[in-house]
Structures are given as structure tokens and as C-alpha cells.
Amino acid sequence: MSELRATRRGRAASPAALATRHFRRDRAAIAWFTLLAALLLAFLAAPLYAEHVAGTSPSENHLSDVIVVDGKRRHVVSIDAQPIGPTWDKRYFLGADENGRDLAVRLLYGGRTSCFIGACALLLTILLATPLALAAGYFGGRTDSVVSRLLDVIWSFPALLLGVMLSTALALSGATIGPITIEAGAKVVPIAVIGIVYVPYVARPLRGQVMALRGQLFVEAARASGAGPARVMVSELLPHLWTTVLVLTPLMFANAIVLESALSFLGAGVAAPEPSFGVLISQGLGNVLLAPHLLLVPCIAMVLVVLALSGVADGLRRAFDPHGALGVDAVHGQ
Amino acid sequence: MIGYAARRLGWAVLTAFLASIVAFVLFWTIPNVDPEYFLGGAEHGNAYTRARAVEKYGLDDPLPVQYVRLMKEILTGKVACYYACGSLREEFIHALPVTLSLIAGAALIAVGLGVFLALVCVRHRGRWPDRVITACATAAYSIPSLVLASVLWGFLAHKWQIFPERDYVPLTENPFQWARHLLLPWIAASLPFAGAYVHIVRSALLEAVELDYVRTARAKGLSEKRVLRRHVLRNALIPPVNIWGLDFSHAFGGYALYVEVIFELPGIGLLTSNTLNSLDLPPMVALAIYLTLVVVLTSAIVDLVVAWLDPRVRSAPSSP
Predict the structure, then answer these.
(1) What is the pTM of this model?
(2) Residue A138 in 3-state DSSP?
(3) CA dist., res. B198 & res. B121, Å (int)
(4) Tell me, what's the ipTM?
(5) Which of A2, A291, B61, B82 is the most buried (most CB within 10 A)?
(6) Of B27, B33, B154, which is closest to A173 when you measure between CB atoms?
């Protein structure tokens, strides 16, 4: 129906417009998208929540504080070192940790850090993978072999191990490379590791697509009209790739968050006490006997983020790639 | 087939070589991490001990010479440590069966569960079992194995003590105890993958059931079950096998690390984590290279298995 209406108005709807419309009518996709947006907004608003609602910062200890819950006075951390559980109130909404820090505040800040690292890593992946895929797919031959080999090397290097090793090596004393100084525990390290590790996941489907496009008439026409390789790649081939990138984005974002949490869990990503999902889970694991909420809360939050991202990814795939032609099926997390 | 195998193994060797260079460059030439200081007695050292270390370990040699020497040391298992360590190669070989039990068990569970559920989905395609299973699969692969491992260990093993908290019993010693110790790690490592596999296998199967030869099989009067099991499954499984192989080889440097740390399984992951905590650089490089070898070798073996299953792959002109 909608397609008909579009043509009646005198112009055919573009594939992108059709797909957008499909996505907007996909109730499940919209629900996941709303959840994702709500979570991301909440993470972004972490400083506001900390200042105006909880009235504390993510690293402020309240070991000896006493708060009033339901008219009763309670210690934030009891004499036998048991932190308070969720109060469902303004202060300590999700409870406190073993140092009396507000878990809700730490969770929001942690989510913000995890998502920030994930987003930067994702951007780096796309910026590295797209030119590689364009060059490999367009030139073929020797360029393709070199790029494919490079991707194989990245692919076969144990990702988590690389990250852990690199940040441990840098943790010794940081590194100075030319004018750039990387301090120990800088976020650049996990971002770079995650960003590079996932390059093959994005570059491979893109390379296949460029190869398929290379032989088509519009590319030949552009070349015949005198366009050089760079021109053909940027103005003819690149616009065809953004759908694939768009469909891959939420999946890779989820993967990046998962990898970041694993790195931080192993002490190689975000350095405690700064919170991130991995740091919070690792902290919760040590306190599970006294305070199970410290483990459950970050776990549930992280699952919600990943779940929302998978839901959005599925919706995007249904809308933009209904026949599975982009070859992004094989990309999955962990 | 032999030609293909030779070519594939050649690529594997080349990839391992390139990866070893990357490891060497990354960890040996990082500025500020100077071996001279650490091998020369670290904070207790002085100009004299440092000069001796430079001489003894040949730190003044050109980088290619140092690279060759380090690789020799790594492959023979005699790595010069900054502090103290035993024979890393022995420890690695000792730890390998533990990690292999974890990863192979998890992979079998994930593949078995994934294929079985995907078959159920395809038999009931479009109806409620299909929808319920795919929804559950999405949920399963959205639970990172880090979260799953933490929650399972934290509650079932540590808090309620239903399952053993740590340690490992070799299969040859007591198969029941072996499985009991590995059950939670297996669940944690396999569930997310099983969820992903349900989707991958399901879409591969759905593509295959529309093909002509399947229609012929149905037209012959075969039951739907028989059509799916005998005709569709075998051909539809080839693309997923590639993904399994990749996941399998990646597991060594991936989830094995934190699952083993959480459950204190004395495998490669725990060994790596302990080495990392000692901040000892040469053994770290050695471990990275051992692990890369395992990953490269496993993915080569998987490719060979795929080629053996599917003759079309062998004659493909592009590199594997």
C-alpha cells in the first residue's frame, strides 16, 4: 500500500525510505529501540542523577552514614560489613557497595564508560575496515591478498589476550610514542584493542560486497568518464556500503561492550575504582556472599543493553536485508 | 585435496609467522618497557648488572637477531624470565587438556543444542514453537558468557555450594567428577553460542528447504522428518561449520580466559592470568605465541574438514 502511495505521488520511494518505513512499522524493533535509547539516555544523564537525585559521586565512600528507609534508621554498611540492599528510594536506589558507595550512581557511570569505550571502538573499527575493504575489493589481486592476510593475522590473534597483554605491558610504565604519551590505565588502550580486533568482522562482508559491485555497469561508466580509483571508491562504491555498516553497527557495538567488560573484568580495561560493567561485575563477584545485589544489578543492566542492541540489530536486518544478501549472518558476539 | 591441504597449511604457517612478528614488535619494542632494566636486576640493579644483562641476553643485537633468538627460546620452552618461572612450555602442555575439555565440551553442547533446536524450528516454521525458540535463542546470545559465568559461579557454586567451587579432575581419573566440575563452565560458555547457532542454522536450513532437490525428496513421498534429517541438514550445515570452527579456535584466547579465572580451572586461561599478574614480559610473549599457534592450527584443521565435506571449497581460486 505504502509503496503504491509513494508512486502515485509521482516518484518511487527509495530503498532507504522503504526500509526506514519498514523499521518504523516493526513493533518489536521499535520497542527494543526505545529501550536502547532510554538506557543510553540514562547513562548519559549519570552526572545529573548523581548530583540531583542521589546526592553523591560514584567514588564517594559513605561507610559510616545512616539513612532513613521507611521511617527506620539503617546503616549504609552494617557493623558486620554488610552493605544495604536496594532501598527503591532516592538515595541508594539499588543499594550500596562494600564501601558505602551508591550502586545506582556507579552503575550509571559504569554504563556510560562502557558505552563510551564501545562507541569509540566501533567508530575506529568502521574507519579502519571501510578503506581496507574498498581497496581489497576494488583492486583485487595483490592488494586483496595483502589485506586478506592482514585480516587473517588480526583474526587469529587471541583478542582478549592481546588486550590484556597490551594493557599489562603499558601498565608497567606507560609508553611514549613520538609526541603521544599513553599513560598507564588510559582508555585509549581498550578502545584501540577492541577497535582493531573487530576490523575483520566488518571488513570481510564489505569486501565481498565491493567485489560484487566492482563489475557492475555504473562502476564501469564512472571509470569510462575518467574517474580515478579513489573517485570511484568514494563516490560510487561507498554509498552502497552504508546499509551493511548500519546493520552491523548495533551488533558490533554489543560485541565491543562485551569485550570491554571482559577486559575490565580481567583488570585490563577500565581501571577500578572507576566503574564499568566489567569492573562492577568483578566487584560483585567478590561480595556475592554478603551482597548478592552487587553482582545481580550490573549483570542485569549489561544483559539489558546487549539485548536491546540485538533487538535493534534484528529489526534493522529485517528492514534493510530481508533476504540475508549482505552476509552479516555470521557476525555474532562473544 | 592434498594440494588444497598443502596450500592451507602454508597459509597457516605464514599467518603464525606474521602474528609472531606482531607480538614481538608490540611487546619487545614498546618504549619504556626496557628489558635491560628488568633483566639487570630491576630496582636492585646498577649500571654493572645492566651491562651484564645486555651482554648475556644480547639486548644490543639488531632486532631481527633478537627476534630469531626469542622465537627459538619460545619454541624450545626456555624463555628468560624477568623474575622467576618454570618451563613455560611444560606448563602450557600440562594446562592444555583442561582448556580443551572446557572448550570442546562447550562447543559440542552448543552445536548439539543449536542444531537440534534449529531443526525443531524448521519443522514448525512460522508456528509458535519456532517463535518461542527463536526468541529464547536471541535472549541466550544476548547474555554474555562473562555474566553467565559470574552468576552461575557466584550463586550455584560459591553461595549455595551446589557445585564445586574450584579445581579440576582429569577425565582419565574420574569421568563423573570431571563432568561435575566442568558442568557450570560448560553451561556458561555454551549457552550464548547455542543461541547464535540456532539462528544461523535455522536460516541456513530455511534457505535449503526451498531448493529443488528437497522438493524432489518430498515428492518421492518421504516424511518431513526424513527430508530434513537426510537431505536438508547435511548440505545446510556447511556454512555453519565455518563459524563453529572460528568460534572454537577463538575460544582459546577468548572466553577460556575469564571462565577459567572465575571457576579456577587450572587451564591455559588461568596460566595466562597468573603470568600476567607477575608482569613478566617474555613469558607473556611466549604464551601469546603458543596461543596463536593453537588458534591458527585449529582454524586450518577446521578449513580442511570443511573442504573434505564440501568438494566445491577445494577448487575455489581465492585464498582460504
Answers:
(1) 0.86
(2) helix
(3) 9
(4) 0.83
(5) A291
(6) B33
